[in-house]
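for the recovery benchmark. tokens below, seq after
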């Protein structure tokens, strides 16, 4: 399906809230105040995807953070200042934090998500940022939580033994897992609050000092792409790069 990605506008807000309700029926949607805050603070990081007919097909929301100013195992609310993006830090941050990408359920699998991820990566490259990081909710974990630990589930997904609706797609877009956290999202029974922290490192600006040792359980899978072995994959989560 042909779709077009463009900057979010205030006129998109009502449609985005309706989309959020369709995608996450059990979770509170973005509020108009939050979405207007995003536009005021970092308009470049807010994008929408529309079909050739003009229907809203998806959206993405991002901000720039200095990663080592946070607990690496923090929650979505920590990294987004409660969803307001008032912690946006373009002066010292080098990480584009992916707060949201959602696609209308009726058009999932038709290339909308890929278009939004491509636009986000292009933004990171244009701004000369070191990386993109985000939390990948483990959408399929709730169904198997009695049989598998979260780490076992993630290792199954990264080794292609199991497919997760969210994480598998993000891995196919060049992201890699560097940790697993609990309590990342509230009101998300499908994941039971578990998420994989994922990253894409920008090879155009990364230097040797930006690469380090990942969690040992992930090294066999991350080694497929040296650019994913960021020093911030260390359990401490702080390497001074921001």
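predicted aa per position
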């Amino acid at each position: 399906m042909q779709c077009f990605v463009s900057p979010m506008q205030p006129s998109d807000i009502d449609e985005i809230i309706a989309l959020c309700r369709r995608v996450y029926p059990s979770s509170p949607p973005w509020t108009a105040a939050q979405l207007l805050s995003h536009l005021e603070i970092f308009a470049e990081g807010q994008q929408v995807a529309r079909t050739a007919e003009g229907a809203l097909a998806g959206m993405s929301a991002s901000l720039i953070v200095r990663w080592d100013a946070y607990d690496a195992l923090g929650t979505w609310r920590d990294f987004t200042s409660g969803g307001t993006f008032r912690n946006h830090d373009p002066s010292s941050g080098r990480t584009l934090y992916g707060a949201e990408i959602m696609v209308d359920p009726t058009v999932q699998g038709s290339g909308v998500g890929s278009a939004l991820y491509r636009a986000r990566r292009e933004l990171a490259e244009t701004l000369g940022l070191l990386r993109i990081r985000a939390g990948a909710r483990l959408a399929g974990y709730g169904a198997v939580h009695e049989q598998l630990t979260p780490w076992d589930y993630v290792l199954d997904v990264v080794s292609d033994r199991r497919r997760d609706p969210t994480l598998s797609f993000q891995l196919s877009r060049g992201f890699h897992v560097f940790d697993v956290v609990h309590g990342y999202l509230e009101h998300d029974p499908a994941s039971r609050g578990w998420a994989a922290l994922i990253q894409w490192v920008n090879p155009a600006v990364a230097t040797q000092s930006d690469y380090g040792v990942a969690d040992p359980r992930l090294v066999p899978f991350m080694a497929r792409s040296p650019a994913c072995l960021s020093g911030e994959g260390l359990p401490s989560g702080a390497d001074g790069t921001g």
